Amino acid sequence: MNKDERNYYTTKVSSKFITTLGGQVFLYEWRRKEWLICNPVTGESTTITLPEVEAKDTRRSCYVGYDPINKQFKVLCTTWSYNGEPTTTHRVLTLGSTGKPLWRSIECNINISMHKGAHYVAGDICINGVVYCGDHYVEGSCMMVCFDFCSEKFSFIEIDEGVLHGTLVNYKGSLGVLGKDEYQLELWVLEEDAGNHKWSKSLCVRSRISLFQRIGNYFHILGMTGAGEIVFTTYRQSNRFYIVYYNIERNTSTRVNIQGFQQFKDHPYITSPHTFLDYVENIKLL
């Protein structure tokens, strides 16, 4: 990666952003079928070669998370079937371990599949060492797939009709789903009691003023802050780049302008900015 006097690093890769964790940025390098891990503070980078996908009609999905018990960063790599056949492989890699990186096979006897064009709950999110994915079929039913990075075991949660087509968020340490249309926001929170899961509608805000009038047309939900504010971010490159913090309890919003992106407007390799919540700088590369 190359650093210039403006204090940012540039590199040309045919990749898409995945997430940030532990001060690192994870990108998927689709041409070489590998992950690129970058440290924006130091400009260092390294790669992870992903397991091969052998079966047809399958898609590789990878998720990164933190095991708080063993204090380790891990990657889960799976192949999801589009045609209803059982998932071919589940593998886990521990980052930062000594020696040659080793993918370990994880058993799961449940039939997990993904259908093309399916969209049940958007995104995936890792909370307290568990990653949640909301767009899969489990034994023919729409379910949320959960993977615990500590025990390295799968579990499943039923998806209620009320949370369909929402976005997964971390609501004050609990799994939440935000649903929105032009005049309404709904927040659903997953409650757990003795191992039983229940979706509860926590908040519902209706407004006479369109959300698009308040924050703009080309925004999507990025997530929620620790204080419970919704963060909206733009998904279209423009002369102005800003994010909006929306307090769903008070029904108020705060706009924050971000400077420095104007120079990338006509950049041939940059189509839109990517924004990440809760990024913490780290001078070490995983």
From TrEMBL:
Residue span(s) of domain F-box associated beta-propeller type: 15-280
Transmembrane segments: none
InterPro entries reported for this sequence: F-box-assoc_dom_typ3, F-box-assoc_interact_dom
Domain of life: Eukaryota
NCBIfam families: F_box_assoc_1 (TIGR01640)
PANTHER family: BNAA05G37150D PROTEIN-RELATED, F-BOX DOMAIN-CONTAINING PROTEIN
The name this protein goes by in its record: F-box associated beta-propeller type 3 domain-containing protein
Species this protein is from: Microthlaspi erraticum
